[in-house]
Design goal:
Elements (H helix, E strand, L loop, with lengths): L2 E9 L2 H17 L3 E5 L16 E6 L2 H8 L5 H10 E9 L2
Antiparallel strand pairs: 1-3, 1-4, 2-3
């Protein structure tokens, strides 16, 4: 069953974040992930719990693949770039 990584991102350094994006995409794909949304326009129709900023949606074959990507040694230095240049909320959710 597919699993999705959903990331809400507030970018603090747009120029540096461009480098993160360029490095992250091939790693996502190497781990079996597919970008389904990457910071497109938002139409927030209800925000009682949270107000999203910039949404990224990644699809992986399953929860294990999604977790393996986030915890992988090859993504670790790239993830550190994200931590340095953006504030994020990241969740993994099972698909149906």
């Amino acid at each position: 069953m597919a699993a999705y990584i959903i990331v809400d991102t507030r970018i603090n350094d747009p120029e540096a974040y461009e480098e993160y994006k360029a490095l992250a995409r091939p790693l996502v794909e190497r781990h079996g992930g597919i970008y389904r949304a990457r910071g497109g326009d938002l139409d927030v129709v209800q925000n009682e719990l949270w107000s999203p900023t910039r949404i990224v949606l990644l699809e992986f074959p399953d929860m294990e693949s999604a977790r393996n990507f986030l915890d992988s040694d090859d993504y670790a230095p790239v993830k550190a770039m994200r931590y340095a240049h953006a504030d994020c909320t990241t969740v993994i959710v099972d698909g149906i």
